[in-house]
Amino acid sequence: MAVLGGVPQHRHMGRFFHGIAPCLVLIVLGACAAAPSGTPVTLPLRELNASGVSGTVTLSAIDDGHTLVEVDVEAAGHLNMPAHIHPGTCAELVPQPTYALESVIGGRSSTAVAAPLEELLAGGQALNIHLSNEELDVYSACGDLS
């Protein structure tokens, strides 16, 4: 057995692990506390104006104040479609968006939104996809977030 500073080495190792174990527990608990809670929510996006665009939006909590919004649609030949979360519903959409999303390119978009998942799903908001940057007044798909 090796002796280090007059104390057998195994005693130093015991002290080392005794001192570091509480730190490891705190690190693991901290990582668990930071993990997002809840299950992702997938909602339909329905075609508007005979655009051929329809699909889903999936909302997932990133943390207590941010949500990942993922759009997956059949793009029907529309290469670049702006997308937003608006107040209101698909039937009565308020034109000014609350949150801008990454444009839907090739049928997909992924955006981290600075809002809790619960707030986005509380009702009174809708995800709207525009036909193109040139035709922002033409809506291609919409889904109520509730």
3D structure, described in words:
With 146 residues, the protein is α+β, with helices and mostly antiparallel strands. It folds into 2 domains: 3-34; 41-144, Superoxide dismutase, copper/zinc binding domain (Immunoglobulin-like, Sandwich), CATH 2.60.40.200. It has 2 helices and 10 strands. It has helices at 9-34, 117-120, and strands at residues 3-4, 7-8, 41-47, 54-63, 66-74, 80-87, 99-105, 108-113, 125-130, 139-144. The chain has an 8-stranded antiparallel β-sheet, with no helix packed on it. The chain starts with a strand and ends with a strand.
In short:
With 146 residues, the protein is α+β, with helices and mostly antiparallel strands. Helices cover 21% and strands 43% of the residues. Strand 4 and strand 5 form a beta hairpin.
